[in-house]
Each structure stands twice: as C-alpha cells, then as structure tokens.
Amino acid sequence: MRIVGIAGSNIGSKTRTAMNYTLKVTREKYPDADITLLDLADYHMVFSDGRNYWEYEGDTKYVTETIMAADALIIGTPTFQASIPAALKNIFDLLPINAFRDKVVSIFVTAGTAKHYLMVEQQLKPILSYMKAHIVPGYVFIEEKDFHRKEIVNDDILFRIERLVEDTVLQVNAVASMQQAKDAAYDF
C-alpha cells in the first residue's frame, strides 16, 4: 500500500507539524506501508499550463507522478482567506480529471479559527469528488489553540488523527476488495 501525505502549502509550520504526527502514526500502525511525504514547501512547482502531468519536468513531475502512483492520499491543508492555498489548488490543476479514481483521500485542516470549518465541505471535498476520489467521510479540523511550540497539545486532536489514519487504511482495503470483486466478475 502506497500512502502519500501532502502538506498542502509552501509556507507556515502548523500543517507540517500535523502531517509529521500523522505520518508517524501511520508508520507505527502500518510498518509495511510505503509512505511518502510531499511537503509543497520543499518543492519548486510550476503553475499548470494544461499539459499532461507526465510532460512536466523536475519537482513538478516528481510530485505529480508520486501522487498518481499512490493508493491513498492524506491531504493536510491550512485555510487561507477561507479557502485552500494556491499551492494545493495548483496540484489539483496539474492532475487529470480522473486522477483520484480508485484512490482513498483523507483530510486534515489547520485554521486560525473554527469559523473556517466549512471550507472543507464547500471547496475541498467537491474538488476531490470531481476528481473521483474515495473520500474518508470524517476529517480532522485543527485550530490555532491546539498547537503550542510546534506541537499538537490537544489530546482529542491526536486521537482523531489516529482514527483518521485507521479509517484511511480501512477504506483502502475496502476499495481494493470491491475492485477485486468487480474484476472477478469478468472471465478474461
């Protein structure tokens, strides 16, 4: 199972802090999984210009091909101006419409205030649905007050991240099982 964690911004530390904890939990619970972190702050991404994702070069090609090869994506994103960051939107623009078909996608969001919780429901989930993702229904919303000195200090958030990881892997297994059943229906 290939799991890719996407820290969906090129600035800030809270999303990366939460992603580091999420992938640590994932590695501990599922040591056989192939886990990759894509922190968009670490890559020089070009803006989408309409080409196929494999036609790009450098970091852009690496990031998009890593996403396309994944079985599951854990997307962590901050909320900027009540929306997703441009760096994350650019990732979606670089990929084809069916990029997330047969992929499981789970989400956590960092935000300064609880007022931004609807961003996931009104913006991020529709994009993922349009791109054919199997979206893990529950997501983790992490506020400014849940962090202290680049650590998550709210035990409920830590528990919910652990649950998100478990739900992600369970859904990957369910999607694989459904695909096997579909494939078995054909005798060729």
TrEMBL record:
The keyword tRNA processing does not apply. It holds the Pfam family FMN_red. One of its GO terms (molecular function) is oxidoreductase activity. Coiled coil: none annotated. Keywords: Flavoprotein, FMN, Oxidoreductase. It comes from the Bacteria. The keyword Oxidoreductase applies. Residues 1-144 form the NADPH-dependent FMN reductase-like domain. This is FMN reductase. It comes from Paenibacillus uliginis N3/975. The lineage of its organism: Bacteria, Bacillati, Bacillota, Bacilli, Bacillales.
